[in-house]
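Researcher: Here's a chain I'd like modeled. Treat it as a single chain, no partners, no ligands.
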Amino acid sequence: MDKLTKEQRHHCMSAIKSKNTQPELLVRKFLFSRGYRYRLNYPRLPGHPDLVLRKYRTVIFVNGCFWHGHEGCKYYVLPKSNVEFWHNKIEKNRNRDRKKQLQLTAMGWHCITIWECQLKPKVRMQTLEALEYTLNHIYLEDRRIKSYAPVEGETLIAAESMEEYNNGIQRFSED
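Model: Modeled as a single isolated chain. Structure tokens:
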């Protein structure tokens, strides 16, 4: 049973922010201090990702464990009152997250999700350093120069032969 009245619970839940949360600020400060530049809640992409690093073609979602249903996490516990409502709400959030990430992936974006529990003091630096490593890896993979092997036994010509070229000029001047 809930210790708060319905009005008190509503007030508490409505005061929870969706932007500029503490976990999001931690990630933003870390990335900025390491020289990464990003856009916030970019409206032109599906799902309005928390951070968009266009140079890396990467989006970062910083998810709260409760609101996005982080499976196996001790911070994801359904409330004992109004269980059906909360279960449906969190399941809709999960489905929406999956759908938006699939859309972003289809558009060629890399999607990274950082959970609130991964930013707790004991594991924070490990998570943030792994994020930096991942971004560097993505950048190097996207920028890698691809070498093309020449086709054996075939001379590649970038233009038509002189004979074809001269025939084309003659036809053009006759018209």
